[in-house]
Design a protein that fits this description.
Elements lengths: L1 H9 L1 H15 L3 H9 L16 H7 L2 H30 L5 H21 L12 H11 L1 H18 L2 H27 L5 H21 L1 H9 L10
């Protein structure tokens, strides 16, 4: 852990650059922009439907094509943010033995700041979406193994329930679980090429994203408990 603290103290400015870049990319909220374009500036997605500036509300309130554009762009901005974080952390790590672990941590942290920007966009009065698609994009770049497991969980729950929020919440809860199992069992225990702080920090980062996403879905959880959450039907 001392090596981690030394790393941070020596490279604080590059850390700041990577996190600010990720936050600003996240702040480019596609749902808000697409809705304004489609409605010619007459409507704001945050005043429509559930009021959430995200894929599901765009699908219900604006249509399928804008929703597809929203989900693609939200994923791409997260992928770009995480890629930039990975590159900067790779530069900071150099050729050290801990470079793979440092790069992975950089991807997780950059992904978190991108999700933060998506939910609280500086360009749109700090009122955005819930970060599910951005989180998925982060997982894809950071650890494709975790991404596939989380995606499978989401699809199974959604196919069974037809409720996106329920699938998103359960997938978010499983995110730190999958992260811990893969980084601890496969990367740390079996490969032996990583320090203990690696799986600890990865799991903590995943847990932080999980808690953030679940809290953002608090209204959805209330509707789920009351049986009022809407399902996505074929006609949508």
């Amino acid at each position: 852990m001392d090596s981690v603290l030394r790393f941070v103290s020596m490279n604080w400015y590059l850390l700041l650059i990577s996190f600010v870049a990720a936050y600003l990319l996240g702040s480019i909220n596609t749902a808000i922009m697409v809705t304004r374009i489609v409605t010619k500036g007459k409507k704001d997605i945050r005043d429509m439907g559930s009021g959430n500036a995200g894929f599901t509300n765009v699908l219900r309130s604006v249509g399928k094509v804008p929703a597809i554009f929203t989900i693609v762009c939200d994923a791409l901005k997260s992928i770009l943010a995480v890629a930039i974080g990975g590159i900067l952390f790779a530069y900071m790590a150099g050729h050290s033995d801990n470079a793979p672990a440092v790069i992975m941590i950089g991807k997780y942290l950059s992904g978190f700041f991108c999700i933060l920007g998506h939910s609280y966009p500086v360009f749109f009065r700090f009122k955005g979406g819930k970060g599910i698609v951005s989180a998925a994009g982060m997982m894809l770049v950071a650890d494709w193994r975790v991404f596939l497991l989380v995606l499978a969980t989401f699809l199974v729950i959604f196919i069974c329930s037809k409720i996106i929020s329920l699938a998103s919440i359960i997938a978010a809860i499983m995110f730190p679980v999958y992260t811990f199992v893969l980084t601890f069992v496969f990367d740390y225990m079996l490969s032996g090429g990583y320090q203990p702080w690696y799986f600890i920090l990865c799991t903590v980062a995943a847990l932080g994203i999980c808690v953030f996403v679940v809290i953002k879905h608090s209204a959805n959880i209330g509707r789920l408990l009351r049986g009022e959450e809407k399902k996505i039907t074929a006609k949508k």
